[in-house]
Design a protein that fits this description.
Shape: globular
Helix content: 25-40%
Strand content: 15-25%
Bound molecules: flavin mononucleotide, iron/sulfur cluster
Number of helices: 7
Number of strands: 11
Order of helices and strands: EHEEEEHEEHEHEHHEHE
Distance between the termini: 22 Å
CATH topology of the largest domain: Rossmann fold
CATH class of the largest domain: Alpha Beta
CATH superfamily of the largest domain: Flavodoxin domain
Number of domains: 2
Length: about 260
């Protein structure tokens, strides 16, 4: 089996992981295992040496979001080749790729290739629309190189990053912006179901600040555009942040 396993609140990590996995799957059809939702129902799953897994997750605070780590721990490899990808919002991926590298080794996988991919930042207007068509083409070209490495029995020795990881003991945490809900909400409940941390109460409005990780999935998916962050403190931050990160960065691939 070739599988893409991803945690991806705003869908950028999903796109990179799936693009790579679909090239690697013998029939072009990789299995998608989306572990983003709070209730994502994956029991512990084991993979063998004949399988291939592509992992995808976002960079949060220069690290792998710790909830993604917890979810990935449900999977075990037995000498299973894998590709690791982290997607970041044009600032930097810091130690997240190395953290994912270390994690998959610990879980019994053998990394063949790795990628630090640029995606639209959760906040502000930074690299809007990425990954775009040309990013996905680069991902596909990388996947073909992974195929060659696999055939030649070459595995990845390391990826960039620091040990110990520089940004905090606990790993990637969420942010401190908690979305608001305006009068357009029709109580459809989509945001309640889709929130990765089960932070939205059944009234579709009350958000538990201790659970919310500021991933903004609820804002992205609300069909009524009712979930929002329209408060000056956020809007001012977003404008300044978008200006600072306006120079596009390139995807980086490692074999
Ligand atoms: C709480 C939080 C922290 C983030 N930290 C970083 C960071 O350190 N560096 C960066 O370049 N992008 C950072 N981002 C942006 C995300 O990595 C980026 O938007 C990514 O594409 C989101 O992935 P997803 O669409 O799969 O959810 C952060 C986003 C959030 C919500
Ligand atoms: S997704 Fe939007 S409209 Fe639906 S319950 Fe949530 S806030 Fe309301
Ligand atoms: S409530 Fe918070 S954690 Fe849940 S989807 Fe919205 S931003 Fe993400």
């Amino acid at each position: 089996m070739t599988a893409a396993i991803y945690f991806s609140p705003t869908y950028t990590s999903k796109r990179g992981a799936e693009a790579i996995a679909s090239v690697l799957a013998p029939d072009g059809k990789a299995v998608s295992m989306d572990v983003t939702r709070y209730d994502a129902a994956f029991e512990e799953k084991e993979f063998g040496p004949e399988d291939l897994v592509v992992f995808g997750a976002p960079v949060y605070g220069g690290r792998l979001y710790r909830g993604a780590k917890e979810r990935f721990r449900r999977f075990r490899g037995h000498g299973t080749p894998c590709v690791i990808t982290v997607t970041y919002g044009n600032r930097h991926y810091d130690d997240a790729l190395l953290e994912l590298f270390d994690l998959v080794l610990d879980l019994g996988f053998k990394p063949v290739g790795a990628a630090a991919l640029v995606g639209q930042h959760t906040y502000g207007h930074i690299q809007v629309g990425r990954p775009d068509v040309s990013d996905l083409k680069e991902d596909e070209a990388f996947a073909l190189q992974v195929k060659e490495a696999l055939e030649a029995g070459r595995f990845l020795e390391t990826v960039p990053g620091n040990r110990p990881y520089i940004k905090g003991e606990e790993g990637g945490k969420g942010g401190s912006f908690h979305p608001l809900t305006d009068q357009n909400c029709n109580l459809c409940g989509i945001c309640v179901k889709e929130c990765p941390e089960g932070a939205i109460a059944p009234d579709c409005r009350t958000i538990d600040p201790d659970r919310c990780i500021s991933c903004f999935r609820c804002i992205r998916i609300c069909p009524k555009a009712a979930k929002n962050m329209n408060v000056p403190a956020y809007l001012d931050f977003a404008q300044d942040f978008s200006r600072k990160l306006s120079n596009p960065r390139k995807n980086e691939y490692f074999l």
